[in-house]
Design brief:
By secondary structure, the protein is α/β, with parallel strands linked by helices. The chain has one domain: Roll (Hypothetical upf0131 protein ytfp), CATH 3.10.490. It is built from seven helices and nine strands. The strands form two sheets. Strands 1, 2, 3, 4, 5, 6 and 8 form a seven-stranded mixed sheet that branches. Strands 7-9 form a two-stranded parallel sheet. Helix 4 packs across helix 5. This is Glutaredoxin.
Amino acid sequence: MWTLRKVPGATVVSLLVSLLATGSLLFTPETKALNTDCFPVLDKKQPQYVVVYGRNMHESLREQKMKQKYNSQLPVWVSGYQRGWMTRIKEEGKYTTLGVVPEVGKLLNGILVEATPGMIDTHDRTEHRMCRTRLDRKNITSMAGQVIPSKGEFWIYTTQKASRLEPAGKYPILMSEVDEFLTGCIEQAKQFNLTNFPEQCIDTTDFWSRHWSNDRERPLTGRLVQVKRSKVDDLLSKLKGGLYENVREE
C-alpha cells in the first residue's frame, strides 16, 4: 500500500528552483520556444490573417485540425508566390505534398482566413517543413469583389529550402491529398460562386507529375474526410499529358 508523506515546504521550494535552473519546467516538447526567423512574433494587437492554399481549403479538414472555426474567409489571388507539389515528407511515410515558395511572376488562388494568435501559434507548432512568411497586402487581391482588410498582419506558410523537392518514384503525390485539395477548391467555388476556381487551383499548381500513388481506399496519412471523388476525377482528366491516366491504372 502506498502512503503519503509530507514534504517540508523548504524542500519543495528547493526542488522547484533546481528544476527551473535546469530548464525542466521551462520547455517541454510542447512548449519549446519557436525559431522566430521561421515563425515571426505576432503583433497581437492587430488582426491576423492567413492565406490557406492546399488541403486546408477543405473546411471540415481545416476545422478538424484547428479544433475550431475561423472567423471569416475570402477567396483571393496571391501574386509573387508559386504553389506546387514540392514539399518532401520523409518521416510520416514517403510522399510529396503541396507547398509554396516566393517566385516573381507567379500567381496562386487561395482563401484568406482570419485567425486568432492562439490558432496561429497552434498551427506553427505542427509545421516542421514550413515557415510562416509575412505577406505584403499589395500582393493579395480579392476574387469576389470584397475588400481586403486594411489593417492587420498577413501570412502564408512557405516550404523550407531543405524540404523543396519535386515528386519522385519513392516520394509520389498521394491521390488522397489531391482529393482533399481539389474538394476544398470545389467547396470554395460553390460558396463564393466562383465557377472556375477549381480549374484555377490546378492551373496555378506546378509540378504535377507521373509519380502518383493511388491511396484512396487506404490513405497513407490516415485521415478520413468526405471528398468529391467523381468531380475530382473530372478535373484531373483535363491535366495535360495524360498524367491522371497513370493513377487510374494503378
